[in-house]
Amino acid sequence: MAGTKNTGRSELPGLETPKFGPTGRPLREFADPAPLKSHGPARIISLCNQKGGVGKTTTTINLGATLAGYGRRVLAIDFDPQGALSAGLNVNTHDALTIYDLLLGSAKDPSAAIQHTSVEGLDVIPANIDLSAAEVHLVNEVARETILARVLRKVSADYDVILIDCQPSLGLLTINALTASHGVFIPLECEFFALRGVALLVETIDKVRDRLNPAIELDGILATMYDPRTLHSREVLERVVDAFGDAVLETVIGRTVKFPDASVAGRPITQFAPEHSAAKAYKQLARELVARGAVA
Ligand SMILES: Nc1ncnc2c1ncn2[C@@H]1O[C@H](COP(=O)(O)OP(=O)(O)OP(=O)(O)O)[C@@H](O)[C@H]1O
Ligand SMILES: [Mg+2]
């Protein structure tokens, strides 16, 4: 037809050129998760990377909110004395029971520490700076690595997924989180030093599997703060995929100022800017994790 460009194979039925996502794999749509007929026991997932500022807390908040939007009952654990998760979800940390009280045993019932958030179906156990003293207090405890696991066992039946937002360290708190978990996600920022330290993290997960928690699985590596306009970001992602192959989730979270803006507003991006591509990326992440079987 006059004026029609020859676009080659893509015009032949059944031979459409596949579109590739940022991780180099063909782009796929993941189906909306089917509603659950019953709830619990929870699959427990740690978001872990000893490198700071890679998107652990942002992912805990937004993945949690999105899974709750899909009808999952989600409990987020703030396991960082900085309390960024608690602040990001706008919950009380001052005159409230926190995860510290539960670890130390000064509060016995974890449900007393649970707070609801503005997102229906997303609850949180908060933390504040008290938690920074926990490692020192717990160091002489019997079975000090399994304390969080014992706390979470008491509430696991009420939730479909429990997300633990770890602090940027591989100390005793993070070992507690890994020991309590069925799976671990590693958020990685797409910048030059992203891979530094990941070998040590993987080694730590292997040690926990060997000595404390034989069932723990690496659920996936999530590339965050990806900027497709920079060669640098694309190169880093390529190296991450070379190093970790299919463990790298197909969903990639782009870099956008909407995240800091949403944090200031104390709301997940799915509420703050539901039509923004970043909110859509977290929805896609939730669907991919359900498709992979990491979440019910
Ligand atoms: N995709 C993104 N694009 C732009 N900014 C982001 C993105 N994800 C997170 N941020 C911002 O980067 C900063 C660090 O993110 P976040 O707090 O989630 O990282 P973290 O790994 O939990 O950090 P820490 O190790 O200190 O706990 C925050 O200011 C957050 O708003
Ligand atoms: Mg954090």
Automatic annotation (TrEMBL):
SUPFAM superfamilies: P-loop containing nucleoside triphosphate hydrolases. Transmembrane segments: none annotated. Residues 1-33 are annotated as: Disordered. It holds the Pfam family AAA_31. Residues 43-217 form the AAA domain. InterPro entries: AAA_dom, DNA_Partitioning_ATPase, P-loop_NTPase. It comes from the Bacteria. Belongs to the ParA family. PANTHER family: COBYRINIC ACID AC-DIAMIDE SYNTHASE, P-LOOP CONTAINING NUCLEOSIDE TRIPHOSPHATE HYDROLASE. May play a role in septum formation. This is Chromosome partitioning protein. It comes from Agreia pratensis. The lineage of its organism: Bacteria, Bacillati, Actinomycetota, Actinomycetes, Micrococcales.
